[in-house]
Write a structure and sequence with these properties.
The protein contains three helices and no strands. It is mostly helical. It is elongated and about 35 Å long. The relative contact order is 0.08.
Length: 64
Amino acid sequence: MFGRTRVAIDDRLLARLRKWAERSGYSSAEELITHVLEREVAHLEGAATEDELRARLKGLGYLS
């Protein structure tokens, strides 16, 4: 990795992520977060159309 970017995560969510990282065998919450984001971005990149991408983002609550 060439650099680091900081992202603010709610304390309660971070606590949950740390718990799941430990349960799932990740070395840290950061490793779990990176894996989840990589998987989600790959999923979004596989969207056939812009409309499908918008529908997925809306379903995830990112668009209204």
